[in-house]
C-alpha cells in the first residue's frame, strides 16, 4: 500500500520485460467478487510500462492479473485487501521472467 499516492483510489505500477524495460500495451485487470474492471493498457512514451486502475473507495478484496487480448489470465493472481482509510493507492509491479 502507498499512503503517499496522491490520488484515491488506485492500483498502479509498471509492467517490464525480463531486461527491465517498460512494456506498452499490456492489459492489467482488477476484479473482485462483484466487479470486473475493463483491462487497463500500459502506457507508452515518457510513461512506458506504467498503468493505473481506479478501484473505488469501498473496503474490499481485489485481485489483479495480466490478461491477453481474449481476456484470458496469463500471470499469477495478486490479491490485495483494499482499505482507502489506510492508503490512497496500492502498487503492483510486474516483470517477465523469460
Topology:
Layout: E1 10-16, E2 27-31, E3 40-41, E4 50-54, E5 60-67, E6 78-82, E7 89-91, E8 94-95
Parallel strand pairs: 1-7, 1-8
Antiparallel strand pairs: 1-4, 2-3, 2-5, 5-6
Shape: globular
Work out the oligomeric state of the chains in this entry.
Answer: single chain
The stretches of 5 or more residues where confidence is low (pLDDT under 50) are none
Beta content:
35-45%
Radius of gyration (Å)? 13 Å
How is the biggest beta sheet arranged? 4 strands, mixed
Rounded mean pLDDT score: 92
* Topology order in helix (H) and strand (E) letters: EEEEEEEE
Distance between the termini: 27 Å
Number of strands: 8
CATH-defined superfamily: Transthyretin/hydroxyisourate hydrolase domain
Report on the structure:
The relative contact order is 0.35. The protein has a single domain, classed as Immunoglobulin-like (Sandwich), CATH 2.60.40.180. The mean pLDDT is about 90. The chain has strands at about 10-15, 25-30, 40, 50-55, 60-65, 80, 90, 95. It is globular, with a radius of gyration of 13 Å. The chain is mainly β. Strands 1, 4, 7 and 8 form a four-stranded mixed beta sheet that branches. It has a four-stranded antiparallel beta sheet with strand order 3-2-5-6, with no helix packed on it. It has no helices and eight strands. Helices cover about 0% and strands about 40% of the residues. Strand 2 (about 25-30) and strand 3 form a beta hairpin.
Amino acid at each position: 500500500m502507498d499512503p503517499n499516492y496522491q490520488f484515491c483510489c488506485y492500483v498502479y505500477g509498471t509492467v517490464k520485460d525480463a531486461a527491465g524495460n517498460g512494456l506498452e500495451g499490456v492489459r492489467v485487470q482488477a476484479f473482485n467478487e462483484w466487479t470486473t474492471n475493463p483491462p487497463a493498457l500500459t502506457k507508452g512514451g515518457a510513461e512506458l510500462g506504467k498503468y493505473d486502475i481506479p478501484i473505488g473507495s469501498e473496503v474490499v478484496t481485489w485481485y489483479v492479473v495480466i490478461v491477453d487480448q481474449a481476456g484470458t489470465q496469463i500471470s499469477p493472481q495478486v490479491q490485495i485487501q483494499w482499505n482507502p482509510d489506510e492508503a490512497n493507492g496500492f502498487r503492483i509491479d510486474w516483470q517477465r521472467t523469460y
